[in-house]
């Protein structure tokens, strides 16, 4: 009889495992909370009876809530990165169908390498409007903070003096001002990204919180400035700003801290030029426009500041404003070729014959009495070639660059120039009437040549390469190709 009674019991248990399946834990994750994921919805009370979590040999206190297959443990105090936690769930845990956990579950967590050092809570909240002026600033960290690093990284603007109190475990800081805040001020609290935890991990990102005592409904205003070589000059709506430099920036200074996230959509420059809009990292009242392309010389640009730029409280600029600036700074003036003069007359003292840059393919004659036709082996006659340029008033032509970037070729072997010397003329070798209203500085470069005149017509081809530069690095806007018709006198 006893055998007959035992067999049905074994049969029933086997059938229960078969029909309801196994009950097990698929994963457990430790973050701000502890999540345990079961293979099927657990029976809550059995899990509470089977659950334990220890850190540093002490049981961690908290509450467990359930959501489907998940059991979520909320610790009474934040988890610490410096603590190793051990989770145990025994086979006392069952699912809602009464199936027991198939085996004891154990998992060890060491989250130090997985969770960042961060600020968990901050009071007062960002953009808070406060009712009283004698409150502390309270900060809660995910892990113990280094005290010296905190005092070095913490700042408030306008400046306020504080006394700092650290919690016993160094995860909480209370900053108590030594005097009351002012109702008239808006305060910005910053904790720099260099803040270190007690185990030398960086905060990694600056934290900023702004608070005030009364709503600020005033509209933001702004001014524009040209900033170059530590010089700062204001731009006006009423007149063009002249002399904007090639490597200058435009600084926009607002009367209030602004929301700079969308600032680029409110700034337009025509004609278009490559630029980057850069909000100041430390002062939310300042935005700078940095240019990523070189400006063409003497171009006028119109900068439009559209209305609607928001401050931190939602107030916006009320009107559109336009500012003009001209890229004609003398230090950036490009070199311009004005013409050539040839010492080809009967006497060396005669004024050289001038050909402006507009006199392409003009005829030029070399006096046969002074430059008689020669055979190739005969010596040449000393003569001068003058090149005329306009350039920055603050500079001069680089003679080395002029020698390297000037080339004279001829066709039909009509004449031969062998350049021997180069200098910058102290005085103009020709009448100044040729250069009325020339902008910038007028410079004549003199080449001394040993010149051989052959009894043939041909072309004289002057080539000046755009790399020709002045002493401060400005060059030409492009190569110069200038041609004259060399003819023999009859």
Q: How does this structure look, described?
A:
- The chain is mainly beta and 490 residues long.
- Helix content is 8%, strand content 39%.
- The strands form eight sheets. The protein has a five-stranded antiparallel sheet, with no helix packed on it. A five-stranded antiparallel sheet has the order 26-25-28-31-30. Strands 1-2-6-5 form a four-stranded antiparallel sheet, covered by helices on one side.
- A hairpin with a 2-residue loop joins strand 5 (62-67) and strand 6.
- The protein is elongated.
Can you give me a brief rundown of this structure?
This protein is mostly beta strands and 490 residues long. Helix content is 8%, strand content 39%.
